[in-house]
């Protein structure tokens, strides 16, 4: 038995004092209304109506049940209204997990603007490098960088995630500047220990007329790396690169200021560099649902708009990155 449908039918029949009028009101058959009431009476173990030639009359038990049923149905209607309104107007608590380094630079600085735009959304920010189980942790949306693993989660691309090979001017003065990706095999590479292997992937880009080296290189190159330093923290790799410890493959969202100030030098500008062959990106990830809540949509759309494409952190770097 659909208990709430049966209760609604009973309440309507009590008001209209007729099964046929109730059936017309609810757009169902009269036999369906009669069956609902009979099933309720069987469940409760008491008659709800006395039938007479003038219509339906509530029994004492019917009057008691109607009084409490009206309260329950009103509470259900209120719950439906409040819950559905959450999806019409972005509101409520939004739990977001962000990677610490990226989050500090490009999520947190814009939170005030987001909260001013959506004053009815409360935020709970969880900063974590590890990939949390969103369902178990009660996370509404996660910001992730790089290549996403296969999963049942939904994902929306927020922005590109570009890495470049770079090092300090002092390092290249001491060790020479690589002209083609293969030259990196003779350099100290600062590697991200979270990656499965010690290889960087390069794809040729740009105008061949701008190439200064003599050798003819293939379109795709996979470079075996060497070096004594690795870390699971991109910010640590940045500090090591600035200190002249080697060549690092770092995201533009992290190294923009150092490039502009000349503390880092972009090498192999005619090559697109990746930590693997798959294309990375900045992603918004959320649990699979038929209807994505308006607060999640508001958060994701806000950051897609703020970051832009190409991302704002590459403003002023275009000529430098293509030089």
UniProtKB/TrEMBL annotation:
MF terms in GO: DNA binding
From what superkingdom does this record's organism come? Bacteria
What region holds the HTH lysR-type domain?
Answer: 1-59
- List, alphabetically, the CDD domains matched: PBP2_CrgA_like
Q: Which UniProt keywords apply?
A: DNA-binding, Transcription, Transcription regulation
Taking the record's annotation, the residue ranges forming a coiled coil are none
Tell me which family the UniProt entry assigns to this protein: Belongs to the LysR transcriptional regulatory family.
Q: What is this protein called?
A: DNA-binding transcriptional LysR family regulator
Q: Whose protein is this, by species?
A: Caballeronia udeis
């Amino acid at each position: 038995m659909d208990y709430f449908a049966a209760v609604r039918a009973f309440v309507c029949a009590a008001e209209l004092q007729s099964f046929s009028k109730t059936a017309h009101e609810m757009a169902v058959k009269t036999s369906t209304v009669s069956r609902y009431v009979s099933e309720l009476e069987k469940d409760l173990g008491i008659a709800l109506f006395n039938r007479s030639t003038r219509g339906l009359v509530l029994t004492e038990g019917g009057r008691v049940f109607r009084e409490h049923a009206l309260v329950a149905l009103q509470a259900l209607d209120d719950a439906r209204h409040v819950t559905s309104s959450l999806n019409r107007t972005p509101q409520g608590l939004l739990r977001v997990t962000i990677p610490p380094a990226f989050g500090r630079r490009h999520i947190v600085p814009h939170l005030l603007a987001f909260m001013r735009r959506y004053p009815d959304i409360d935020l709970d920010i969880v900063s974590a490098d590890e990939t949390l189980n969103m369902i178990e942790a009660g996370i509404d949306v996660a910001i992730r960088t790089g290549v996403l693993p296969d999963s049942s989660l939904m994902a929306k691309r927020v922005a590109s995630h570009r890495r470049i090979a770079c090092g300090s001017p002092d390092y290249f003065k001491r060790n020479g500047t690589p002209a083609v990706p293969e030259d990196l095999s003779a350099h100290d590479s600062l590697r991200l220990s979270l990656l499965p292997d010690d290889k960087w992937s390069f794809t040729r880009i740009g105008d061949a007329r701008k190439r200064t080296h003599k050798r003819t290189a293939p379109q795709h190159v996979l470079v075996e790396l060497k070096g004594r330093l690795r870390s699971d923290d991109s910010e640590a790799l940045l500090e090591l690169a600035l200190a002249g410890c080697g060549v690092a493959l770092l995201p533009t969202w992290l190294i923009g200021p150092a490039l502009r100030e000349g503390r880092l030098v972009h090498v192999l500008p005619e090559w697109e560099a990746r930590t693997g062959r798959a294309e990375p990106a900045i992603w918004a990830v959320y649990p699979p649902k038929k209807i994505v809540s308006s607060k999640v949509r508001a958060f994701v759309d806000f950051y897609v708009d703020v970051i832009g494409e190409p991302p704002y952190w590459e403003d002023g770097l275009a000529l430098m990155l293509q030089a």
